[in-house]
Amino acid sequence: MTIDTSPKVFFSLFVITVAFVVLTVQGLLLLLYREQVINDLRERSCEPVSVRWKWSWNRRLGVEFRVIHTDIFGKVHASLARVDPMRLTVTWLPE
After folding, report:
1. Do the Cβ atoms of 81 and 93 come closer than 8 Å?
2. Hey, is 34 helix, strand or coil?
3. For residues 80-92, b (16+ Cβ closer than 10 Å) or e, as one string?
4. What is residue 78's three-state secondary structure?
5. How far is Cα of residue 67 from the mean position of the Cα atoms in its chain?
């Protein structure tokens, strides 16, 4: 049994490896952005209940999350948060 060492095999493995690395980095960035939203909520004395990623077509404006949180009085609120990927700032949007 011989191992195929043709350039096509190496190129295919290279493409698969690059795609895996890019998807892994994108997933880690989403986790970072989600943590920015949670940190912003805690700075405002709110407790996050649910922070979920909202897929959007226009990623240049930022990454959006649907957020359900409670304020200091225990009242539940639902809102949208947008994280700017360059400055890591959180902008709250009306839902």
Report:
1. yes
2. helix
3. ebbbeeeeeebee
4. strand
5. 13
